[in-house]
Every structure is written in C-alpha cells, then in structure tokens.
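Predict the structure of Early light-induced protein.
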Amino acid sequence: MAAASSYAMQSSILACPVTNISNRCRVNQFGIPSLRRKASLVVRSMAEEEQAPNPVTPPAPSQKVSSKLIDILAFSGAAPERINGRLAMIGFVVALAMEVTKGEGVFVQISNGGITWFLGTSVILSLASLVPLLRGVSVESKSKAFMSSDAELWNGRFAMLGLVALAFTEYIKGSTSTLV
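Done. Here is the predicted structure for Early light-induced protein.
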C-alpha cells in the first residue's frame, strides 16, 4: 500500500512541472502549467550546536625583497631573466625593423656595427633595471592588471625565441635577408 502511494506521488510530481499541494496539475487555457500555487513553501533550518570559531590566521607577511646585488643577480633572482627578456624584446623589434627597412639579416646587422649598439643598450637597460631592484622595489609591486610582471616575462621569453628563430632561419637559408 505504501509503495503504491509513493509511486502515485512520484508520478504526479514528475508528470507536472509545477506541483502544488493538491497533487493535480493545473493547466491554463493554452495548455501551459499554471504557476499559481495554493500553499507557500517555508524552509526552516535548525542551527547546530555552537561551534568554536575558527581562529583567523593572519596572512603570511610578504617576503621582503633583498636589495643585495648578489641576491638580485643570482640564477633565481629577480634580474637575470627580466633583463635578458627586455633586451630580447628590444633586439627582436629592432632586428625586424632593420630587416624590413634595409633588407639586412641579423648576422649582417651584427657585423655592420651592431655589437656596439648591443653593448650600449645592454649597459643602459641593465642599469635602469637594477636601480629599482637595488632600492628594494619589487617588480610585482608595480605590476598592473594588463601590464603584469608575468606578461613581461612571457613576452621576453617569446622575444628570445624569436631572435633565435630569425638567426636560425637566416643561417639555414644562407641569405642576408629573411623577410625580403
């Protein structure tokens, strides 16, 4: 008997998308189930026994950025990949621009005085990158949503790969220009 009534209840609930207490599905003149209900649904919950509040752990203090030159220039320090990436980004854009405008490949650019420009740019950019780090300013503290420090690292990595690809393509082709 209980199984039959349970089955009847389930079938009436599943048959009618909008259910009400009377277990009958009311349909309006267009055959759409009525959204009107006779009884309101009340949900009550009982609180469990009071629990001891979880102690709030203060956030871990951020590590202070070391301003020692040895720490900054260490293999895992803040400067090496960042400076190399910045130099690669400048070098990639300049190499492409010179190749498009003058038709000279990377190796020709280097042999025609590119070494002095590279060394000068490297010294200036390295010093400009080291000054804030030596003062204790972290790169992440100056990072914005769009111009983030992670985006700078990835752009530098891709620029490094791009420079290698330009040189490798020129070497394989055996020509002085890869774009012209």
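Residues 18-23 have pLDDT under 50 and may be disordered.
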